[in-house]
Amino acid sequence: MKLFHRVILTLAIGLLPVMALWSLLFYYGMVGEINDETDDALSDYAQLIMRRALVGAPLPQPDNGSNNSYSIVPVSEEYVRNNPQITFYDEMVYIPEKEETEPARVLKTIYRDGEGQHYELQVATPTFERKDLLETVAYNILGLYTVLMLTILAVVSIVYYLNMRPLYTLLKRLDKYRPGTKSTNFTDTTTVVEFRKLNDAVQKAMERAEYYFDRQNSFIGNASHELQTPLAILGTRLEWLMNSGTLSEEQMTEIIKMQRSLSRLVRLNRTLLLLSKIENGQFPETTEVNIAAIIRENIEIYSEIYADREISCTLQMSDGFKVSMNESLATTLISNLLKNSFVHNSNGGCVKVSIDGNTLTVANSGNEPLDASRIFERFYHKGNSDSTGLGLPLVSSIAERYGTKVEYCFADGMHCFSIKFMR
């Protein structure tokens, strides 16, 4: 989830209890205010009735045009002692004029006439429907919440965009950064202290990464270069021993095994040196390379080498497919892709090479999918002890050198490797 969406979601969730509490306070505040006004009116009306009753004046008629109603009942001394002098409460009362029951606010009070007789006066006036008021408040609060959220969304979007631009600028640069590209200038003109500190921290981290990356590449390159001479000497001495004629059959077998291991070590050293040169940008020259011609040449070579395995080849491409890249790297890329399709194929299987638009696809027969998350890792190989585990990583490194990547999938019993060239 993006930070912006998380902020909006947090605001929305945080506002819910706030708005709910505010609506409750608003509702009860409104009810209290209405009751106060109603109670004042009831008190005035009760005072009018009591004054008229005490002086013997005519009392208001029940059908005087208002919805107010009253009743006067004589009460005993005991009743007076056990009940409050004045009480306000809500009750459902019957309105004769409307012939229906409605909610009303009721005032009960006790007074005494000149003869010492106590009376209870009950005055009632229709009031509002609490349920209707609650629904009205709820709908209005919901509308207010919606408008408030839309307003907050608009304001937060503008504020967020204006204040978070340095962060997104930094993230874009980090996405584009690759070790060895020397693009480590992460400074920005922001005046926000936190972003300046973040930029400085990233700058230092990239400089450390570049330093250790350069040291690693230098070590690999130097080590591979220094190993070439002793490996060549070992190969020459093993050949001399094999041609000396003094070895027994058992010794000859062991020498052959040693020579096979030495050959694998030579290939490994050569590939590591090539990888180091690629990552150090030592292949700057580019030219128009005919990929189709390189494919046909390598198909012919590997078909002869693995002729005993009876692997069939199918080509679907035009002869004029050219790309701009280093010719040596292009040859290495195609050679490793095709060799991989032959080496890791089954006897009697097939290799299919096709070019569709700018995309080259090399597919070979297989029984089960490979681990797509690991096949491009260095020194990872499955089921072949003679493999150096650097063929596909080398292909991937060359592809990244030219701003693309190798895609893998397993479909219809075929391992498929695809590269989209930037022409």
Description:
This protein has helices spanning 3-55, 77-82, 130-176, 193-243, 249-279, 291-305, 327-343, 391-401; strands at 69-75, 86-95, 100-112, 118-126, 287-290, 312-316, 322-325, 350-356, 359-365, 406-411, 414-420. The protein is of the alpha+beta class and 423 residues long. The chain is rod-shaped and about 150 Å long. The mean pLDDT is 80.
In short:
By secondary structure, this protein is an alpha+beta fold. It has three domains: 131 residues, no CATH class; 87 residues, Helix Hairpins (Orthogonal Bundle); 134 residues, Heat Shock Protein 90 (2-Layer Sandwich). Helix content is 55%, strand content 19%.
Give the helix proportion (percent range). 40-55%
Shape: rod-shaped
SSE class: alpha+beta
Main pleated-sheet profile: 5 strands, mixed
Number of strands: 11
**Domain count:** 3
CATH class bucket of the largest domain: Alpha Beta
* Mean model confidence by pLDDT: 80
Poorly predicted ranges: none
The arrangement of helices and strands along the chain is HEHEEEHHHEHEEHEEHEE
Give me the CATH fold name of the largest domain. Answer: Heat Shock Protein 90
Q: Strands of the largest sheet, in order across it?
A: 6-8-9-11-10
First-to-last CA distance: 36 Å
The CATH superfamily of the largest domain is known as Histidine kinase-like ATPase, C-terminal domain
The CATH architecture designation of the largest domain is 2-Layer Sandwich
Count of helical segments?
Answer: 8
Strand content: 15-25%
Cα-atom radius of gyration: 46 Å
